[in-house]
Design brief:
By secondary structure, this protein is mainly α. Helices cover 73% and strands 0% of the residues. It has one domain: Amino acid/polyamine transporter I (Up-down Bundle), CATH 1.20.1740. The protein is built from 16 helices and no strands.
Length: 450
């Protein structure tokens, strides 16, 4: 008699949706409104809408690709099938690096918030110990597979959405119309160049608010009906986050006005202005839950990525893709924990810049893969078809390339170092793979002769 409990349950649509919400709504949603407001004032809401539309075009490209494949891996898998083994390998390493930097950035953000009202976290030993504890906690939960993942993820995502909705609804009663002026900074109105400079400065942090969508297809094999559910989830998540972010920013400006640009915890401080200290405490708790959720989401997806590199096409040694009885990629979990813990010793802004760079590296090849598949009619879609043929991918490609102008030389140098190191490792891995195959062929020949 077959034991149905031995087969791990796949993630449902609602679980994938909550996973996507956790991947997108994180520290940036709570920490960056002050930066965004400083550059564009009330007009920042229009910039946010423009950014949401442009990022959604990239997300639609991912929806198209995820409808073509059911395997885990996302960006690296798409590039592998479009441009070959080496391109897929390089992108896989960058996407895993993106997952590690995201996990590290959220852990650092979580501890930074705790520092603001618990001085004990300013102690270096306590700070480092907390980094190790949090990453170990995520790893232990992930060792037990999807059953724990779904519980923690769904609770975290639901609490996060409730926190933002409460902020929007309660804050709306304390909005002052006078806070909606100025509409745009005077410096941005002095000419075309200053305007686009302010627009670009606001565009970059807003863009960061949406980058987490690319994590959704990474663990496709652990999801129910991924070729149909993932595209729907991508559209649902981007729509939900855009609505929440626009309302959140509108209420924050209405509560604080020009003071918003000076707050280190903008949403918490804004609600405190309206309802008092309890509002600040409520938002801090919600912020901690939100950041914890994104970190947890990254800790779940990232090990699946490195495991898929080993299991799907043998781009890494097979032992890296090993899984335990709970179907959890335990070797990938350990590797991710080690790198993430090392990265978490760096500053939050440095980790954010690494995340944006790694995002750019995976967007461009993925968009080019959409164009190629549409042209060649390879790997037909199932359940989702990108409208307009080449229009959306071309616009998405232009937007992604625009991101290059925002990278510092230091960030570009880091990207080059990661690419070179990955290429060097690929040479030795590929060489070992060829030697192993030759050895297997030799043994097969010996058996045939005997």
């Amino acid at each position: 008699m077959t034991n149905n409990n031995s087969v791990p349950k796949k993630l449902s649509f609602i679980s994938i949706y909550f996973l996507g919400i956790n991947a997108v709504i994180g520290s940036g949603t709570f920490l960056l409104p002050s930066v965004i407001y400083r550059y564009m004032n009330l007009t920042a809401i229009l910039v946010l809408l423009c950014t949401a539309v442009t990022v959604s075009m990239i997300a639609l490209c991912y929806a198209d690709l995820s409808s073509r494949f059911t395997q885990s891996g996302a960006a690296w898998l798409y590039s592998y099938n479009a441009f070959g083994r080496f391109a897929g390998y390089e992108l896989g390493i960058f996407t895993w690096f993106l997952g590690c930097t995201t996990l590290s950035a959220e852990v650092v953000a979580l501890l930074t918030v705790l520092k603001s009202f618990l001085p004990i976290f300013k102690n270096n030993a306590v700070y480092i110990g907390s980094i190790i504890f949090l990453i170990l906690l995520f790893s232990v939960i992930n060792f037990f597979g999807r059953s724990w993942v779904k519980i923690v993820n769904n609770i975290s995502a639901a609490a996060k959405i409730i926190t933002l909705i409460v902020f929007i609804i309660i804050g709306a009663f304390f909005i002052k119309k006078s806070n909606f002026t100025p509409v745009i900074p005077h410096a941005a109105l002095t000419g075309v160049t200053p305007f686009f400079k302010h627009f670009g400065d606001a565009f970059t942090p807003i863009f960061y608010l949406f980058t987490g969508f690319s994590f959704i297809p990474i663990a496709a094999k652990q999801m129910n009906n991924p070729e149909k559910n993932i595209p729907r989830v991508l559209v649902a998540v981007m729509t939900s986050v855009t609505i929440l972010d626009c309302l959140m920013l509108l209420v924050a400006i209405g509560l604080s006005g020009q003071k918003l640009g000076s707050y280190s915890n903008p949403l918490a401080s804004a609600l405190k202005t309206g309802v008092g200290q309890w509002g600040f405490a409520f938002m801090i708790i919600g912020m901690l839950i939100s950041i914890f959720g994104v970190a947890f989401s990254a800790s779940f997806n990232t090990p699946s990525l490195i495991a898929s590199l080993a299991n799907e096409h043998g781009m890494l040694p097979k032992w890296i893709g090993k899984k335990n009885k709970h179907d959890a990629p335990w070797v990938g979990i350990i590797f991710t924990a080690i790198l993430s813990a090392a990265l978490a010793t760096q500053s939050y802004l440095f980790l954010v810049s690494c995340t944006v760079l790694a995002s750019f590296v995976q967007y461009v090849p993925s968009i080019l893969a959409v164009i190629k598949f549409k042209h060649s009619n390879e790997y037909p879609t199932h359940g989702f078809s990108l409208p307009g043929k080449y229009t959306i991918p071309i616009i998405a490609l232009i937007i992604s390339c625009y991101m290059v102008t925002n990278f510092t030389p230091k960030t570009l140098l880091l990207g080059a170092v990661v690419a070179v190191l990955a290429a060097a490792c690929y040479f030795f891995i590929d060489k070992d793979e060829k030697l192993e195959k030759e050895h297997e062929n030799f043994l097969a020949k010996l058996r045939h002769i005997k």
